[in-house]
Design a protein that fits this description.
Helices cover about 70% and strands about 0% of the residues. It is an all-alpha fold.
Length: about 200
C-alpha cells in the first residue's frame, strides 16, 4: 500500500497541483541554494560591495526598504511580486553574491515560492545599511502620526466649541423672542357672586 502511494498517487497529486512545474523548480533551487558559501563570499567582498549596495538600496522603493530593514516576515506576499524581482536584478548588476541565481529562479517560479533565499539575501543587504536610517524614518512617521492626532483633536475641539457657542446663542435668541413676543399675562376673570337661590 505504501509503495503504491509513493509511486503512483503522490506523483499524480504533485503533477495535478503543479502543472507548470514552478513549485518543483523552486524546491530544487532551494535545495541547491548554499547560504554558507554565499555568506562567506559576501563577507570577503564586503568593502567593495558596500557603496554599490547602498546606492542600490537608496534607489529602491519603500516596500523593499521595509523588507530589508524592518520586516520580520518569513514569506513574501503578492504585493511585492513586482518590486522584489527588480531589486534582485539591481543586486545582480552589481554582482552581489547569490543575487543572479536567485533573480533567475524568481523569474521562473515567482518570489512567493522562493521567500527563504530572497529574505536571506535581504538580510545580508541589511548588514550594509546604516542602523540609524530606519529609526529616523520611524521617528518621522511617529511625528507625522502625532501631528495628525493633534490636528484631529484640535479640529474636534474647535467644532465642539463652535457648536456649544452656537447653541448658547440660539438659546439666548429663543429666550429674547419668547420674552418680547409673549403677551402680557391675561387677567383672571372676575368671579361673579352666585345668584342667591330664590326663596319660596
Amino acid at each position: 500500500m505504501t509503495t503504491t502511494w509513493k509511486t503512483r498517487v503522490a506523483p499524480a497529486l504533485k503533477a495535478l497541483f503543479d502543472k507548470d512545474g514552478k513549485k518543483a523548480a523552486a524546491a530544487e533551487f532551494i535545495k541547491s541554494f548554499n547560504k554558507e558559501d554565499i555568506g562567506k563570499e559576501i563577507d570577503e567582498k564586503k568593502v567593495e560591495l558596500e557603496p554599490k549596495v547602498l546606492e542600490v538600496y537608496e534607489a529602491a522603493p519603500a516596500e523593499i526598504k521595509h523588507l530589508v530593514t524592518t520586516s520580520k516576515s518569513s514569506k513574501i506576499g503578492r504585493k511585492y511580486a513586482t518590486v522584489v524581482p527588480k531589486f534582485l536584478e539591481d543586486l545582480a548588476k552589481i554582482e552581489f553574491p547569490g543575487a543572479q541565481a536567485v533573480s533567475e529562479a524568481v523569474t521562473k517560479s515567482g518570489p512567493a515560492l522562493l521567500s527563504g533565499p530572497i529574505l536571506f539575501l535581504f538580510g545580508k543587504v541589511a548588514t550594509f545599511v546604516p542602523k540609524e536610517e530606519p529609526k529616523v524614518e520611524e521617528k518621522e512617521a511617529e511625528k507625522t502620526e502625532t501631528t495628525r492626532e493633534v490636528e484631529t483633536t484640535t479640529t474636534e475641539e474647535k467644532k465642539e466649541e463652535t457648536s456649544t457657542a452656537e447653541e448658547v446663542k440660539k438659546e439666548e435668541e429663543v429666550k429674547t423672542e419668547t420674552e418680547t413676543s409673549a403677551p402680557a399675562e391675561p387677567k383672571a376673570p372676575k368671579e361673579e357672586p352666585a345668584a342667591e337661590p330664590a326663596k319660596q
